[in-house]
């Protein structure tokens, strides 16, 4: 008697576009960035090419990745995956990973070959969070500079306002930029942080060969073998 293999279940949710983490594209800088003194250098761990996040050309092609288009995710025990969809366009704009008491939201963007986006993007995120009534402070992290932020959120049916702590991390790769937002235990607890940081390291970015303007979101897709759930 044959058994039917159950497909992986992937949750599909509406994206919260008021959060800087799920902007469909990165903001552009007005005027000449170099004249404005913007730091255009790449920001990434020194061991990125071996320890990740990896470019598709650097990854082990035989590992059983979940192919989501712009990123590939390596399955692991206890990992739940969500695809966040922009309501107006119905396109996938972020990948959410629930793991070890933490949430990790990731987005891959096209980037220039020789310059980076994270140093500029951190400033933009700080400004957006301040406009929402939150705060964001820069500090050194395992991936380089990161932001630790208190972000306003609406809680409960009555819509009471609260604050949540989140870490904004970013890595510049070859012709791509990967942005992540860590919430839950991984934002405050060192042991949980180490586990979600390892998860971020394991992500593979698939830039592709098609021309794309810098700062555009690299297209994401539903994996062919997945069963979406609402």
Q: What would you note in describing this structure?
A:
The chain is mainly beta and 230 residues long. It has a single domain, classed as 3-Layer(aba) Sandwich (Protein Transport Mog1p, Chain A), CATH 3.40.1000. It is built from three helices and 13 strands. The protein has a nine-stranded mixed beta sheet with strand order 8-9-10-11-7-6-5-1-13. A four-stranded mixed beta sheet has the order 2-12-4-3. Strand 6 and strand 7 form a beta hairpin. It is globular. The two termini are 32 Å apart. The N terminus is likely disordered.
Element layout with pairings:
Layout: E1 8-14, H1 48-51, E2 54-55, E3 66-67, E4 71-73, E5 80-85, E6 92-99, E7 102-110, H2 118-131, E8 135-141, E9 144-155, E10 160-173, E11 176-184, H3 190-201, E12 204-205, E13 226-229
Parallel strand pairs: 1-5, 1-13, 2-12
Antiparallel strand pairs: 3-4, 4-12, 5-6, 6-7, 7-11, 8-9, 9-10, 10-11
State the main characteristics.
disordered N terminus, 230 residues, 3 helices, nine-stranded mixed beta sheet, Protein Transport Mog1p, Chain A, mainly beta, 13 strands, four-stranded mixed beta sheet
Here the CATH topology equals Protein Transport Mog1p, Chain A
Q: Give unreliable regions as ranges.
A: 1-7, 30-35
Helix share, percent: 10-25%
Radius of gyration: 18 Å
Summarize the helix and strand pattern as letters. EHEEEEEEHEEEEHEE
Percent range for β-strand residues: 35-45%
* Helical run tally: 3
Roughly what is the average pLDDT, rounded to an integer?
Answer: 88
The strand count comes to 13
Going across the biggest sheet, name each strand in turn. 8-9-10-11-7-6-5-1-13
**CATH structural class:** Alpha Beta
Number of domains: 1
N- and C-termini, Cα separation: 32 Å
**Which structural class do you get from the secondary structure elements?**
mainly beta
């Amino acid at each position: 008697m044959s058994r039917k293999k159950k497909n992986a279940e992937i949750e599909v949710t509406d994206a919260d576009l008021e959060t800087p983490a799920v902007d469909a594209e990165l903001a552009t800088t007005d005027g000449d960035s170099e004249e404005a003194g913007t730091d255009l250098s790449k920001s990434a761990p020194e061991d990125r090419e071996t320890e990740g996040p990896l470019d598709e050309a650097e990854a082990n092609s035989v590992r059983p990745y979940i192919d989501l288009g712009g990123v590939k995710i390596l399955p692991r025990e206890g990992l739940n995956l969500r695809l966040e969809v922009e309501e107006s366009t119905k396109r996938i704009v972020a990948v959410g990973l629930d793991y070890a008491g933490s949430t990790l939201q990731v987005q891959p963007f096209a980037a220039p070959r020789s310059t980076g986006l994270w140093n500029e993007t951190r400033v933009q995120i700080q400004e957006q969070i301040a406009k929402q009534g939150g705060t964001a402070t820069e500090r050194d992290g395992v991936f380089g500079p990161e932001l630790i932020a208190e972000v306003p959120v609406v809680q409960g049916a009555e819509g009471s306002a609260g604050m949540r702590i989140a870490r904004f991390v970013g890595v510049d790769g070859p012709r791509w930029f990967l942005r992540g937002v860590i919430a839950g235990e991984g934002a405050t607890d060192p042991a949980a942080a180490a586990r979600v940081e390892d998860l971020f390291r394991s992500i593979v970015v698939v830039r592709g060969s098609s021309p794309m303007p810098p700062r555009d979101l690299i297209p994401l897709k539903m994996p062919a073998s997945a069963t979406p759930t609402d």
